[in-house]
């Protein structure tokens, strides 16, 4: 069986709302996060991106973990650019045309239909038996909340911040629904419209991949947390009844503001949680996860699931995470301009 | 030592001149050749490109050989889009902005400087010790002739056709020089101007990579025939005196219209010719090469050199070439539209 590890990357102006995301040290650097994440997964370090993404408190991007698993297991990453705000030196297939708007605008992703269909066609053409699909988009849990609400699904999402700013997210989604003239559940059965009004380009791409992959009888493993739950909801509302699995981290699973089992059950997702043993480990590369930061992203949960399936011991994964981290931060925090 | 296998892909309207190239069954399909080549190297088959590139007589693209070596040796391909005419579903780093013009126009590649600098910066950022650099661009030997002439270097180039249309190529280059108001050797010492007036986007990209790689003390292996000779000449005229190696196929080496040793010596290139043993083999995947078609492309010579270095027996390479070929042509000639 051949497996391909796909990472869909993009940007949404929703991330610029103050306090919404921890996927970057500050809003300007955050714009580079998904582009730098792809470079870290592909090359082990940023190539021309000016920053190694860290949260405001210094938690390193989950791309470090995904890269480490890739070094241990040798999986083939495939990066899709659904709408990056900044250029990346990682090789990508372009499936979109620029960042999504703030969901408080009337239209969030004008070209949703085009992104969805491009991703769907791409997935149908791939020679693999299984797609593992992850994402990197700052602000993505807020757009996920927007989409889940638009579809009328149980709407609770995780956060890259230790304290989930749920009230802020709800207010943003409410403002977006009002501006889009949409009631909660108003886009049920119409996933394209849900993303167009309340989503982001990455959700359009992931949903297209899931639909295309199931149409050509590939196995789908959604690699992530509540953003992938939103993508699964989009696929269900597109009429996909095939088996779908969700692989996430213990940090999402421990997030009581989500209770990941509930949406997984509601959407009939096979839930897999892979424990990387970070809690019994003490290193700056992993401690922030244990403290509840970042939690997921860049396919981290799916990567850990693949490592587990390949029989790679988690001690080896943790050691490689430290190696990747040390290479990235050998000269102190990286920030070029 | 880490090695990265880079393929620079692009298009030039020079390929549309009747009789100039065999890199496609007909001119319309030829436009898809570099895009499909990248998909074959990445995925083992075209994904959304409508064709498996073959010459007018059915010789399969050298991408088949490069893919086969990749399957045997596990090298990491990195594809750069220096200006493709048609979309590709292979992941690429974009370093250009569209195809080059027919060199009979006054300007061939308006954005040469930008492509060169983007490639140079990319190479400088890569974490590898060695770059192997190949190309895929139909019409590329004619633009190579244009560039070598503009630089004042010994100007003899190979061909994907069994009978090298040298008179036609010379006439095209003469017309291009006249329209560009340039004498032979008129761009000596000015590689950017040589490509801008008489080259193609791939040559701009390869030259930039070579300059950037040598600036950061990476080893450079040019993987190909006379197009890579032209790229080496550009690097020499940019003042690069570092050691450069050229790895090509016995089919280029046997091409008397080129005498590959001469330009290699003139440009101080370490020449490596790797015999894949196709001549003692009888299969539709390889026979056309023995008959003098295609000869090189998509990094074939460099891929064979890497296989040789890794100690992979050529019998295994040939068997894998047949496997890749059989997968591609299982349903007869592939042509979708």
Overview of this protein structure:
2 copies of one chain form a homodimer. In chain A, 42% of the residues lie in helices and 12% in strands. Chain A has a 7-stranded parallel β-sheet, with helices on both faces. The first copy, chain A, is of the alpha/beta class and 337 residues long. The model of chain A has no long low-confidence stretch (mean pLDDT 94). At the A-B interface, strand 3 and helix 4 of A face strand 3 and helix 4 of B.
Strand order of the largest sheet of chain A: 3-2-1-4-5-6-7
- What is the number of E strands of chain A? 7
The arrangement of helices and strands of chain A along the chain is EHHHEEHEHHHHEHEHHEHHH
Tell me the major beta sheet of chain A: 7 strands, parallel
The total of helices of chain A stands at 14
- Most extensive chain contact? A-B, 21 and 21 residues
Residue stretches of chain A low in confidence (pLDDT < 50, at least 5 long) are none
- Share of β-strand residues of chain A: 5-15%
- N→C terminal distance of chain A: 43 Å
Global shape of chain A: globular
Gyration radius of chain A (Cα, Å) is 18 Å
Structural class of chain A, by secondary structure, is: alpha/beta
Mean pLDDT of chain A: 94
Fraction of residues in helix of chain A: 40-55%
Q: What multimeric state do the chains show?
A: homodimer
């Amino acid at each position: 069986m051949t497996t391909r590890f796909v990472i869909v990357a993009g940007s949404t102006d929703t991330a610029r709302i103050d306090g919404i995301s921890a996927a970057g040290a500050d809003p300007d650097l955050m714009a580079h996060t998904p582009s730098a994440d792809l470079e870290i997964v592909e090359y082990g370090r940023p190539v021309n991106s000016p920053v190694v993404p860290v949260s405001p408190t210094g938690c390193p991007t989950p791309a470090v973990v995904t890269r480490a698993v890739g070094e241990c297991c040798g999986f083939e990453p495939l990066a899709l650019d659904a709408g990056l705000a900044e250029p990346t030196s990682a090789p990508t297939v372009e499936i979109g045309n620029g960042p999504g708007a703030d969901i408080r605008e009337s239209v969030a992703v004008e070209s949703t239909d085009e992104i969805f269909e491009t991703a769907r066609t791409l997935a149908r053409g791939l020679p693999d038996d299984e797609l593992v699909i992850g994402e990197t988009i700052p602000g993505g849990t807020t757009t996920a909340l927007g989409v889940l609400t638009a579809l009328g699904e149980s709407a609770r999402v995780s956060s890259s911040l230790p304290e989930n700013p749920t009230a802020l997210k709800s207010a943003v989604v409410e403002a977006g629904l009002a501006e889009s003239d949409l009631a909660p559940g108003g886009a049920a059965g119409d996933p394209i419209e849900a993303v167009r009004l309340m989503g982001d380009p990455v959700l359009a791409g992931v949903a297209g991949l899931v639909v295309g992959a199931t149409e050509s009888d590939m196995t789908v493993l959604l690699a992530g947390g509540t953003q992938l739950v939103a993508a699964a909801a989009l696929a269900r509302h597109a009429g996909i009844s095939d088996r779908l699995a969700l692989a996430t981290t213990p940090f999402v699973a421990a997030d009581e503001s989500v209770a990941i089992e509930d949406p997984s059950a509601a959407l009939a997702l096979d839930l897999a949680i892979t424990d990387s043993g970070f809690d019994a480990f003490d290193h700056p590369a992993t401690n922030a996860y244990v403290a509840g930061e970042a939690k997921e992203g860049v396919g981290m949960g799916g990567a850990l699931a693949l490592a587990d399936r390949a029989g790679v011991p988690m001690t080896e994964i943790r050691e490689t995470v430290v190696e990747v981290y040390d290479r990235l931060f050998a000269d102190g925090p990286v920030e070029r301009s």
